[in-house]
Amino acid sequence: GYTPQFKGLEALYERYRERGLQVIGFASDDFRQEAKDEEKAAEVCYVNYGVSFDMYAQVHVRGADAHPLFRELARQSEAPGWNFYKYLVDREGKVVAAFPSGTAPEDKALRAAIEKLL
What we know:
By secondary structure, the protein is of the alpha+beta class. Helices cover 36% and strands 13% of the residues. A two-stranded parallel ribbon has the order 1-2. A two-stranded antiparallel ribbon has the order 3-4. It is globular, with a radius of gyration of 14 Å. The model has no long low-confidence stretch (mean pLDDT 88).
């Protein structure tokens, strides 16, 4: 349902990367996603949507098995409720904003938060 957001995330990355924005994605099988392996997830991201930002191997993002990065994000903010949850993290590693999956990359509040952070 949210995979079309890859296009918008890529557009954000293209627009702001020269100013320091890094977009990184993590595949996770915690939310009943369609792509069950890394190869399939990579095809969706890179081939179907032309993503050029970094995508990492599947990790757990919630619960006791959550990757340490996501445990820290949850500690500072909250655990992701679903795929395409977005965190804005400053250069010191502090979560400055979090946006639920339904927040599109084109959302004015998300863009304003990025502008303020950069």
